[in-house]
Amino acid sequence: MVDVGGQKTERRKWIHCFENVTAILFIASLSEYDQVSSEDGITNRMQDSLQLFEAITCNQFLIKAATLLFLNKTDIFADKIAYSPLKLCFPDYTGLNNYEEASIYILDQFRSCLSGNRSFYHHLTNATDTKNVEVVFAASMNTILNKTLSGIGMY
Fold this sequence. Notes:
Blueprint: H1 8-14, E1 23-29, H2 45-57, E2 66-72, H3 74-80, H4 99-111, E3 120-124, H5 130-151
């Protein structure tokens, strides 16, 4: 597993290193929909995550990789959505400002970035909830193992 987080200027330096990757684990913070990037003070963090997600999943080196999306910080998002409308990030959003509708809408935004017929798995996570992390980790490892075995003809 390789963490490739970092500044936008660094992204183009590592993307070519991932040819034949089995799975992409992409983690985005649900709670950052109303925040801007610390790099430029303008770019919405959720929009930036969506753009990066699309760039990674459409990249020629990663086109066959299964995609696992973790939408993290569900606890903070659930509290914040009640007083900070999702329209701040998504002006076209017409749903209620509640956890259920807003999280589904955000998930759909990520899902719409995918192209082709690729394996896609998603989890809503709270990294401070150890039970949630255990369940999600086990499911993710199972997905990666199955994809790897399938790739070598053993599943």
